[in-house]
Design a protein that fits this description.
The chain is mainly α. It has helices at 7-38, 43-70, 79-96, 104-131, 140-171, 178-202, 217-220, 222-225, 228-257, 264-289, 292-312, 318-354, 359-387, 398-423, 430-447. It has a single domain, classed as Growth Hormone, Chain: A (Up-down Bundle). It is a multi-pass membrane protein.
């Protein structure tokens, strides 16, 4: 009988992803604004830095995944990266929010260097913390619970930063004071690093290949290239990740230029907390009753409607906008849990069809897509800033209000709808899942693992 995951493991995994997402979302929310409005970098150059760095970071993800898949230590494949990686991430996060008060050229070089290093450090932590969810238990329900807990932890981390970071920034000088961002980064980094290291020290890996079963890189790549359901799912993930990717990058501009109050970031965070946690909390129960693909489809459809309504009707009303943001966050919460559960299904499908799992490569490709989406999202924001001829601290105009409203509401709605196209071609039948479960049970009972 499968050993159940200990309560302290579940708690540490939840808190680890809470801490990690605090740092990720602090970066996603403020780095563009910090570059343009605090460092004085032009919108075009800031966009180029962030997009190029994000693309480079995304390229590193599959490489890190293959490294993790080939890692063999007495602690496991993924745990070592969770113990030591957060320290590197902490340093690079803080450096990204330091104003070195140099000339414009030096400022651009340092900003670009720090941001690139941050992305590489984040990769070291991000891939292992998600990939480990597929090896902490042999029981599918236990793995689904861990995925849900991880997503809830990540959402709470996102919400804490969305709600609380602007309060800390305002406490140390406000949104136009560079040292306020530095101080906030230090506070968040200390808390997040401790949480992530505890995760690495606490979790156990219960599914692992024998030492002689290291899969060659060329063969490991087949985990993706010869797994059609996984390919379709990843295309869908690339598009749906744009929903939050665009919102995270634009929300600071949105609350300042559309709602006229940076303090409204707190209320956006509350809508995110309520919406996403409710969505994620209800998803495991829904998964037991309905097909995951159908759940994903429905969430995309209703998410698109919830995004579009405030753009066309009453979006200038803050309460109305917050309500529909909360509803759309609910459906985003559903998709976030369903997609990771579907990824685990695709990994099991790979083992059934190809004879090996390749968790590290699959989850690294997933983070690659997340970062590629982030790069695309920031590119969209950057193009919007350029088209609006945005300059630091510019006056509010109808053009800026309409532009930032479209980025906050309309473009995410379109992304939800486009996600449904590749999702239609994701096909792992119920019969296939039954055969896969039997195969896994027989395989691991023979190993005595």
């Amino acid at each position: 009988m499968d050993e159940k995951i200990r309560v302290r493991e579940k708690l540490s995994y939840t808190s680890g992803l809470l801490g990690q997402n605090m740092l990720y979302n602090f970066m996603a929310m403020y780095i563009m604004f910090f570059f343009t409005d605090l460092l004085g970098i032009s919108a075009a150059v800031a966009t180029a830095i962030i997009v190029i760095a994000s693309l480079w970071d995304a390229v590193n993800d599959p490489l890190m995944g293959m490294v993790a898949d080939k890692t063999r230590t007495r602690w496991g494949k993924f745990r070592p990266y969770l113990i030591f990686g957060p320290l590197i991430l902490a340093v690079t996060t803080i450096l990204c929010y330091v104003h070195f008060d140099l000339d414009s050229t030096a400022t651009i070089i340092i900003a670009a260097t720090c941001y690139i290093l941050w992305g590489m450090a984040y990769t070291i932590c991000d891939i292992p913390i998600w990939a480990i969810s597929s090896v902490v238990s042999k029981n599918q329900n236990e793995k689904n619970k861990m995925v849900t807990l991880g997503k809830i932890g990540g959402t709470v981390g996102t919400a804490i930063v969305t709600v609380g970071s602007i309060m800390i920034i305002n406490s140390f000088g406000g949104e136009r004071e560079a040292t306020a961002y530095t101080t906030t980064a230090i506070i968040l980094t200390v808390v997040a690093t401790i949480m992530m290291i505890i995760t690495g020290l606490t979790l156990r890996e219960r599914i692992f290949p024998k030492k002689e079963e290291v899969v060659p890189i060329r063969k490991n790549i087949q985990t993706i290239t010869k797994n059609k359901p996984l390919i379709m799912l990843m295309i869908a993930l690339l598009i749906v990740n744009l929903v939050n990717g665009i919102r995270q990058s634009v929300q600071m501009y949105f609350v300042v230029y559309v709602w006229g109050d940076s303090g409204q970031l707190t209320n956006v965070g509350i809508s995110l907390i309520v919406g996403m946690i409710l969505g994620m909390a209800i998803t495991p129960k829904i998964i037991k009753m309905y097909d995951k693909k159908k759940i994903f489809f429905a969430s995309c459809l209703f998410g698109a409607i919830a995004c579009a309504i405030p753009f066309f009707v009453g979006g200038e009303n803050i309460l109305f906008g917050l309500i529909f943001l909360g509803i759309s966050f609910f459906f985003t919460g559903v998709t976030s849990v369903v997609t990771v559960s579907m990824l685990i299904d695709a990994i099991d499908y790979s083992e059934w069809k190809l004879g090996f799992r390749g968790e590290g490569l699959v989850f690294s490709t997933n983070t690659f897509l997340t970062k590629l989406s982030s790069a695309m999202g920031r590119g969209i924001i950057g193009i919007g800033l350029i088209l609006m001829q945005y300059t630091e601290g510019q006056a509010v105009t109808t053009t800026t209000q309409n532009g930032f409203s479209a980025m906050m509401y309309l473009i995410p709605a379109i992304c939800f709808l486009l996600t449904m196209i590749p999702l239609y071609f994701f096909k792992i039948s119920y019969e296939d899942k039954q055969k896969i479960q039997v195969m896994l049970e027989e395989k691991y009972s023979q190993r005595g693992a």
